[in-house]
Design brief:
Largest sheet of chain B: 8 strands, mixed
Low-confidence stretches of chain A: none
Distance between the termini of chain A: 64 Å
Helix content of chain B: 25-40%
Shape of chain B: globular
Radius of gyration of chain A: 19 Å
CATH superfamily of the largest domain in chain B: Thiamin diphosphate (ThDP)-binding fold, Pyr/PP domains
Radius of gyration of chain B: 21 Å
CATH architecture of chain A: 3-Layer(aba) Sandwich
Number of strands of chain B: 16
Number of strands of chain A: 10
Oligomer: heterodimer
Structural class of chain A: alpha/beta
Low-confidence stretches of chain B: none
Largest interface: A-B, 45 and 50 residues
Distance between the termini of chain B: 63 Å
Mean pLDDT of chain A: 96
CATH class of chain A: Alpha Beta
Number of helices of chain B: 13
CATH architecture of the largest domain in chain B: 3-Layer(aba) Sandwich
Strand content of chain A: 15-25%
Shape of chain A: globular
Order of helices and strands of chain A: HHEEHEHHEEEHEHEHHEHHEH
Number of helices of chain A: 12
Strand content of chain B: 15-25%
Helix content of chain A: 40-55%
Mean pLDDT of chain B: 96
Number of domains of chain B: 2
Number of domains of chain A: 1
Order of helices and strands of chain B: EHEHEHEHEEHEHEHEEHHEEHEEHEHEH
């Protein structure tokens, strides 16, 4: 059996849950491959992993994999994950969100989870649009672009998700694209192994909605755009601001140490216990 | 930072506690080891007490960014194996409704204490009301059941919080303590017994966690990390948890079961209390803090030789339909005094043929016994 088939048989609920819901050419499948490979390389037991998701195309992902999976309400995945991780810190908790999920309806939870620095990994698959509901604009739809709710072009500015995560206090922030699959593998692995709140933004494409409405071509053409417009962080340091206009920085944006919620909590608990025993 | 349980996790003896504090102690005694919340008047003292008590007993307390986050963290903690709760008041309770539906549909045990204030909206934040009695039953979309208690004392804030945890675990359902500002802030004696009965969720390996052979059964509930590799979803799901969103039979069976598992066990769940009903011609049906005024009024009129009695609802949901129906056969008229515009009175009317008189006060004040007495005189 080839290596890839072994992974599929081991990690996917392949006999029960397929075919999947994603359109042919969707980037989420590439991301799912990277996720599984990273988990396999690290060697987590399937039962110690919890995948939590919200609603949307990305929200379906945990349903297909044989970990503990919690498919929650729209935008709230991080808050459910916070409860899971604090109640059982031995679990490896990974949160999968879309752009609308993470920074529109769930935006407040996103910045607060980053600020708190709970040991979780948050992954945002950013395809610049609401795919499942039919192509409405999202907080990451770029200015001037079309969607079914911005037919005369989008007049709002878009969020830069990774930069938002950096500002909000995440200890690890990486950005990749589904074109750069190997980088995605490594970003995912680094994020899982990082203690504290880690974020990976995955730039993906929705050719079915965003691509079609903006005449950006097929999935292949949209992935070529990712190839041509992504600049590694290291390379960007030697570039002028005008050269970086409209480009996406990929790689590790931040990797730093800040006090981790669980460790700080443990100290507080020891103090409270000692104080209670003294009476 | 695993959850740790210490020996002396609950107080024993007699204490002078506010309702909110008593509820927190009840939670600790019931085995609650996770609290997520957001400050809101008039419930905050409960949260503040949990903040230090949970840390003392090895549990987890976290202040979240809003009430939506709070209830969702509670549900997450419950699936990770903890007994978990939150407390709030009207505006926060409204925010929690979507996730309460999630908890009901995924059959997640959790406890929510709603210390009601005068609404709607921000209303009178520091004043009393009981305007959430229908919201607790119908607040989230779709058909589901919950269990809700209505305490009238600090003692019952303690007892009902334990009861809420026990029944929530037994039936895998969100359970509510529908307090009000007056009960939450009332300070009085609470007696904590030596031994407390605690129920825990049923666990059984290899059994489907979301379906039973019986149409009204409660499946066992494994936690994440116990080897079951669970799939939990708020979408329609089969007995194993797999999404079945276009299967009419699966949907209908699941919705039926999450309702029947509570409704068919009404007799084991509901509790009422009766006063002077043997020869009563007119009865008051009362709950929460208002029942204290009601009882005072009834006792006063009894001294005058009037044949009045009272039934007190300790459980509000599932509604004590049989008890109320019996009461309706026994008396000519039922007076229902409430700090809302007749929410429970409407429910009473469904089950009785005698006259039901709704007496309402929504001015942010408790209903005084004299007022109830006056109303009773009018209908005697």
């Amino acid at each position: 059996m080839p290596e890839i088939t072994k992974l599929i048989h081991h990690y996917l609920r392949h006999d029960k849950k397929f075919p999947h819901v994603w359109c042919p050419g969707c980037g989420i499948g590439i991301f799912l491959g990277a996720l599984i490979r990273a988990i396999d390389r690290i060697g987590y037991e399937k039962d110690e992993v919890v995948l939590v998701s919200g609603i949307g195309c990305s929200g379906r992902l945990p349903v297909y994999v044989d970990f503990n999976t919690l498919h929650t309400t729209h935008g709230r995945a991080l808050t459910f994950a916070t409860g899971i991780k604090l109640a059982n810190p031995n679990l490896k908790v990974i949160v999968i969100m879309g752009d609308g999920d993470a920074v529109a309806i769930g935006g407040n939870h996103f910045i607060h989870a980053a600020r708190r620095n709970i040991d979780l990994t948050a992954i945002i698959i950013n395809n610049s649009i609401y795919g499942m509901t039919g192509g409405q604009s999202s907080p990451t739809t770029p200015y001037g672009m079309r969607s079914t709710t911005t037919v005369y072009s989008n007049i709002e500015q878009s969020f830069k998700i990774s930069e938002l995560a950096v500002t909000a206090g995440a200890v690890f922030v990486g950005r990749g694209t589904v074109y750069h699959a190997k980088l995605l593998d490594s970003l995912m692995e680094k994020a899982f192994l990082k203690r504290g709140f880690s974020v990976v933004e995955v730039i993906s494409h929705c050719h079915t909605q965003y691509g079609r409405q903006n005449r950006l071509g097929s999935a292949v053409e949209m992935m070529k755009w990712q190839r041509d417009n992504a600049i590694p962080v290291e390379k960007s340091l030697k570039m002028r601001p005008e050269e970086l206009e409209g480009k996406i920085l990929i790689g590790v944006l931040v990797d730093r140490e800040l006090p981790i919620y669980q460790e700080e909590y443990e100290k507080i608990r020891e103090r409270a216990k000692a104080s209670a025993e003294r009476g | 930072m695993p959850l740790k349980s210490l020996q002396s996790s609950f107080l024993k003896g007699t204490f002078y506690l506010s309702g909110n504090e008593a509820s927190a102690e009840g939670a600790i005694a019931a085995g609650c080891r996770f609290y997520a919340g957001y400050p809101i008047t008039p419930s905050s003292e409960l949260m503040e007490r949990m903040a230090f008590r949970l840390r003392e007993v090895g549990g987890v307390f976290i202040q979240m960014e809003d009430e939506i986050a709070s209830i969702c963290a509670v549900i997450g903690a419950s699936w990770a194996g903890a007994k978990a709760m939150t407390a709030t008041s009207g505006p926060g309770f409204s925010l929690m409704q979507e996730a309460i539906g999630y908890a009901a549909f995924t059959e997640t045990p959790c406890v929510i204490v709603d210390v009601q204030r005068a609404g709607p909206c921000t209303g009178q934040a520091t004043r009393v009301g009981s305007g959430d009695m229908m919201q607790v039953k119908w607040g989230s979309h779709g058909d589901y059941q919950i269990i809700a208690f209505s305490p009238w004392s600090s003692q019952e804030m303690y007892d009902f919080t334990i009861k809420a945890f026990n029944l929530s675990e037994k039936y895998r359902v969100p359970a509510f303590v529908m307090a009000d500002e007056a009960v939450g802030h009332l300070r009085e004696t609470v007696r904590i017994p030596e031994k407390i009965e605690i129920w825990n969720r049923k666990k059984q390996k290899g059994i489907p966690p979301f379906g039973t052979e019986e149409a009204d059964g409660v499946p066992p509930m494994p936690s994440f990390g116990e080897g079951e590799r669970l799939l939990v979803t708020g979408s329609t799901h089969d007995a194993l948890g797999y999404r079945k969103t276009d299967d009419p039979e699966v949907h209908s069976k699941l919705v039926q079961r999450i309702n029947l598992k509570i409704l068919n066990h009404r007799k084991e769940i509901v509790e009422t209390e009766e006063y002077f009903l043997e020869d009563a011609e007119v009865a008051i049906l009362s709950y929460g803090f208002t029942a204290r005024s009601s009882l005072y009024a009834v006792k006063g009129l009894r001294k005058e030789g009037r044949r009045v009695g009272m039934m007190r609802l300790k459980t509000i949901w599932p509604f004590p339909d049989e008890k109320v129906s019996e009461l309706g056969k026994k008396v000519r008229k039922i007076l229902v005094p409430e700090m809302n515009l007749g929410q429970v009175a409407g429910e009473v009317k469904k089950y009785v043929t005698c006259e039901v008189i709704s007496f309402n006060q929504t001015n942010g004040e408790i209903i005084r016994p004299e007022k109830i007495k006056e109303e009773l005189r009018k209908i005697l």
